[in-house]
Design brief:
Two copies of one chain form a homodimer.
Chain A lengths: L6 E7 L3 E7 L5 E8 L6 H19 L6 E8 L2 E3 L4 E5 L4 E4 L1 H9 L3 E5 H12 L8 E6 L3 E7 L2 E3 L29 H5 L1 H13 L6 H7 L7 H9 L3 H25 L3 E5 L1 H6 L1 H14 L10 E4 L6 H17 L1
Parallel strand pairs in A: 1-4, 4-8, 9-12, 12-13
Antiparallel strand pairs in A: 1-2, 2-3, 5-6, 6-7, 9-10, 10-11
Helix pairs in contact in A: 1-2, 3-11, 5-8, 8-10
Amino acid sequence: MPHSKEVMVGIDMGGTSLRALVVDGENQILAIEKDATNPALKPDAIIRDLAGLVEDVMRSAGVKRKRLRAVSIGAPGAVDPVHGTVHNAPNLRWKKVALRDKLEALVHVPVFVENDVNVGVVGEHALGAGQGAQELVGVFVGTGIGGGIISRGRLYLGSRGAAAEIGHTILLVDGPRCGCGNHGCAEALASRTALERDVRAAIRGGEKSLVLEIMKERGKERMTSSIIQRALRRHDPVMTKVMKRAQYYLGILVSNIVNTLDPECVVVGGGIAERLGEEFVRPIRQTAYGYFLRRHDASRVKIVPGLLGDNAGSLGAVVLARQRLKEAA
Amino acid sequence: MPHSKEVMVGIDMGGTSLRALVVDGENQILAIEKDATNPALKPDAIIRDLAGLVEDVMRSAGVKRKRLRAVSIGAPGAVDPVHGTVHNAPNLRWKKVALRDKLEALVHVPVFVENDVNVGVVGEHALGAGQGAQELVGVFVGTGIGGGIISRGRLYLGSRGAAAEIGHTILLVDGPRCGCGNHGCAEALASRTALERDVRAAIRGGEKSLVLEIMKERGKERMTSSIIQRALRRHDPVMTKVMKRAQYYLGILVSNIVNTLDPECVVVGGGIAERLGEEFVRPIRQTAYGYFLRRHDASRVKIVPGLLGDNAGSLGAVVLARQRLKEAA
C-alpha cells in the first residue's frame, strides 16, 4: 500500500457540532460529514458518535477503510496532546476524558488530540491565510477568544502546554467580568458573548435596535455570527456601535501580541471573521498598526482574515497528525 | 594562543553611564570599569569614550590586549543586531548610528551590538536567575519597562527584530498617556517614571509624603530606585500606596505574558528589583498567579527577581557575542 494512497480523517469537535473530513496525502478534501453533538450525552456516548462519524465520512469519500492512516481531533478546552486526554471542556461538560485511548479502541488506527484553536491555527498556517510564515499568531473570535502561536514554523505549546490563551490577557484592568472569573480579559470585551451582553444592555437601556427582531425572525436564542451580519447589513445602530468598540479592543489585543511576539502574520479567524472577512478585520488592523511600538514598517506584519472557514480545525488536525507521525517514525 | 586564554569585553550603555567588564572563557569577571555618559556629546565622541573604556578595563584586568577576542555592547533603544547599528536611542539622542563599524575601526576586534534589555535577559538566563530554562521572559522595570524572550534556549527577536516590547502592551485601554504616544501601556502604569508621576500627583493633591524630603536629603532631582527604597523603609504612605498599585499592574503584565507564552520562568529585573528583590516581586507573583488561566499548576511558572544586578547586561552581551562568534565560525 503506497503512502500516497493513505488518507486521514480530521475532526473538529465543537460544543454543538462535529465536523469530520477525509483528506488525501496532498491535503485534498475527499468528503465532509457533520453531526450534532449533544452535550447532555456522556463522554463515552459522544466518543461512539465520533467513531460512527469516522466510518460515515470514509464511506462518503468512497475510500477503503484499510487506507485510513490516522484520526486527528481538535477538541475544545484544555487538552493534553501527549496523552490525548481532554482535561476540561466546559462546553462539553468533560473532565479528564481519555479521548485518544477510548477512540483508538473503536477505530483501530492512531488517534491524535489537540486543542481546537491550536489546530485551527495550524490549518490556516499550513493551508490557509498564513502560508509560509515562520512566526504567526492566530486570533479566533467566537463564543470566546482563543489563540495559537506558530514559532519557527511549528505549533508553540509553552512549558506547560498552556500558551496562546490570549483571550484571557487583560486589556482593561478592573474591566467587565470574564467567564474565567477575572476582569477585563479580551474575551470579556470582544468575544461574541461580550457583543451579545453589550447589545442586550443597550436595548434594555432603551436604545433602538433590530437585533432581537432579527433573532426572532431567524428563530435564534443567541446572537450568532449570522445575526450579527444581518444586523450590520441593516445598519442597526446598536450593533454598529458595539461592533466598532469590539474591533477597537481586538486591534489593541493584536497590537499587544505583535509588541510581544512580532510575528510576520496575524490570522483573525472564527465565525464572525468568516462571515465578514475584510469588513471585520480592516478596523482591527488600523487600530493595531497605530498601537505598534515600531510603526515605520508596521505593514510588514500582515493582519488578515482566515481563509479556511469551518475547515480550518479539521484540516489543521490532519496536518498536525502528519507531523507527529513523522516525528514518531 | 589557546581559546581558554581569550577574554571578552561586555559593555552596558545606559543613558547616564557606561559599564564595562572583562570576562574570561568561564564567564569569570576579571575587571569592571564605569564611566559617565554625557548625552550632550555627539555619537562619535561617545564611541571614542567607549574605545577608551575598553582599553581601561583591559588594563584593570591585567590582560594582554592581544587576548581580547571581541567587544559586545548592550545599547538602549531600537538596535539592528545584524548590522550593528543603533536606529533610535532617545536617551542618548542617537539616530542611525553605525556603532559596530565605528567602534571596530577603533578597537580592531569584532564588535557586537544588541538591545540593552535583550542582553540583560540573556545574562539572567545564562548566568543568573533563569539558568536552565528553555522558555523564559525577562521583565525589566526602570525608567521604562523592557522585556526579552528566550525561546528554545535562545534569544527570540521576532520577524522584524521588534519582539518583547512588553512595556508597550496595553493593560488599561484609554489609561494614562505613555511616552510612546499611546495610552494605558504597562510602562505608563508601572515604570519608575509612572511611579514618580503618581507620587508627585498625590503630593500636589495634598497627601503627606516624605519623598520630596528624601530626594532633597540625597541631592536627587529624580525619584531613583534608592529614593523609592528609602521611602518604603520609612513607611511613606504615598510611596507604599503607589508601589502597591504598580505591583498590581506588573502582576497583570506578567500574567498576560504567561497566558501568551507559558514560559518556565519570568525574571523581574532592573533597578527596583535589584534593590528590593523578593519584597518587590512577591506581590507581583501573587497577582500574576491569580490571573493565570491555568491555575492548578501555576507555581510551575517561576517568577523571580534577577540575580545579576548591574552586571546582567554586560555579562549577557558577552554570552550573546560568544554564541554569534560560534554561529559565524
